[in-house]
Amino acid sequence: MAGTRNYQSIGEVLVAVKTEFPDITISKIRFLESEGLITPERTPSGYRKFYVDDVDRLKSILRMQRDEYLPLKVIKERLVQSDAGAEGDGVDLEGQADREGASVSEELAEAPTGLQMSLEEMSAATGVDRERIKELESFGIVCTHGPEGGRYYDGEDYIVLSIVKDFLRHGIEPRHLTMYKHFADRESSFFEALVAPTLRQRNPDARRAATQTLTDLSVTSRKFKQALLRNALREHLTSA
C-alpha cells in the first residue's frame, strides 16, 4: 500500500488477492462492481478506493464462485443478508457457507435466470479465457443464444464454465470434456424416454410428477457415478 493511505487501488488489490485467486483480473473486479456486488469509493479524480472491508468482501465473493459455483444472483442475496446482519444481529458470510457444509458445494447451483453475457463479459465473470470459451463452444460444451448480431451466453453457460475452470486448472483440455457431453446427451434421452408417457398427459399433477421423477433420477445418477468413479480409482490405486 503506497505511502500512508488506508486504502488500495484496484491494481494493488489485484496483486493482493492473486495468490489465492490466480485467475483474477482487473476486468473481473470491474465486472463485479458493475453488477453491484462490490461498491468501492472513488477519489475526486475517479479512481477506486478499496478499504479492508472491500477487499474482504471481494475475497468472499470469489470464494463462493470458486468453491460453490454459485451464480451472481445467489451471491448477491447472501451479501444482502450479510449486510442486513451487520446492522442487526450479525451474519457471518464465511460462517454461513461453513454451516451449509458440503451439501451446498456438492449440489449444482441454480442457473441465474435472464442472464445474457457477451464473450468478454462471460470471460471476465468466470475467469475463463475467451479463446478457451470459443474452443469449448466448438465442442458443444457451451453455446450462444439469440439472433445473429446479438448472440449471448446465458446462466447455464455461466454454471458450466465455472465448473470447467477447475478442469482447465488441472491441464485438462476442452476436447477431453466431450466424453461428459456425449454421456449427458445419452443419459438425458434415456431419462426422457422413461417419463415420456407421463409427460404426454395434460394433467398438471402428472407433469409435476414427471418433473420430480427427472429430478430424482438426476440425483441418483450423480451419486451412482460418484460411487463407480470412487471404486474405479481405488482399483487403479491398489493395482499400481
Short descriptors:
10 helices, about 240 residues, mainly alpha, Multidrug-efflux Transporter Regulator, Chain: A, Domain 2, about 65% helix, two-stranded antiparallel ribbon, 3 domains, globular
What does this entry show, briefly?
This protein is mainly α and 240 residues long. It has helices at 10-17, 26-34, 52-68, 72-87, 93-106, 119-126, 130-138, 155-169, 178-199, 204-239, and strands spanning 41-42, 48-49.
Explain what the structure shows.
This protein is mainly alpha-helical and 240 residues long. The protein has a two-stranded antiparallel ribbon. The model is unreliable at 98-106 (pLDDT under 50). It is built from 10 helices and 2 strands, in the order ααββαααααααα. α2 (26-34) packs across α6, α3 runs parallel beside α5 (93-106) and α9 packs antiparallel against α10 (204-239). It has helices spanning 10-17, 26-34, 52-68, 72-87, 93-106, 119-126, 130-138, 155-169, 178-199, 204-239, and strands spanning 41-42, 48-49. Helix content is 64%, strand content 2%. It has 3 domains: 10-106, Multidrug-efflux Transporter Regulator, Chain: A, Domain 2 (Orthogonal Bundle), CATH 1.10.1660.10; 111-172, Multidrug-efflux Transporter Regulator, Chain: A, Domain 2; 177-240, no CATH class. The longest helix is centred in the C-terminal third of the chain and has 36 residues, at 204-239. β1 (41-42) and β2 (48-49) form a beta hairpin.
